[in-house]
Fold SDR family oxidoreductase.
Amino acid sequence: MDLGIAGRWALVSGASKGLGFGCAQALVQEGVNVVIVARTASAIEAAAVQLRDRAARGAQVIVVAADITTEQGREAAFGAAGGPGRDVDIMVTNAGGPPPGDFRNWDRDAWIKAVDANMLTPIEMIKATVDGMASRGFGRIVNITSSAVKAPIDILGLSNGARSGLTGFVAGLARSPIAAKGVTINNLLPGKFDTDRLAGTFAATAQKLGKSSDEVRATQAAQIPARRFGTPEEFGAICAFLCSAQAGYLTGQNILADGGVYQGTF
């Protein structure tokens, strides 16, 4: 299927590895020009090399090494030389989740940092781009959140709280007048995908239970109906479809990709 987005411009944050890289890769393979952002210059440059090798239809890849959770980082992303500025057609918001732990050990600063990165940063990025999308008659915004928004995980309380706030905000904005102007906003909720983030969660759980990370990994894989962890490539493919011309009637939704773990009907 041709997704009908070749030649458009996308901004993907947290794109040096994991799910963000998977999304950027799926987009460039569709011929979408991408501005990719991550904090570490060496990592984002290495990601760009891979993306350029896999790009279709002459898609461009522009690199920005910046912390997207800061105002300066966002300005750097939107001001990248050769990029579209704020006139992006597609935006994938993605920031590393806050650390796992026991809520008794989190002070106010920990909560503010989590909310700033995983709620307020996506909102600021949406604010900077959504009206331009509406004026041009096309826009796709995908926020990478977490399956914990739908089925909270006890050790991920910081993420549960901050990402749920973003989810509530998007539920209202997606159904505002921008919906009639070709702009969709959806959240993509990953379950257990084989990334560095998942490995860190395994390590925290292993420490809590007094087991090895390998034991935790095997136990958790066995609990997934698909009997495996997801891959960044298949996550990226879902993201690319949400950004497609064909997904124009899909907005304000929370798309859960978890291999069947969530047992609810709705």
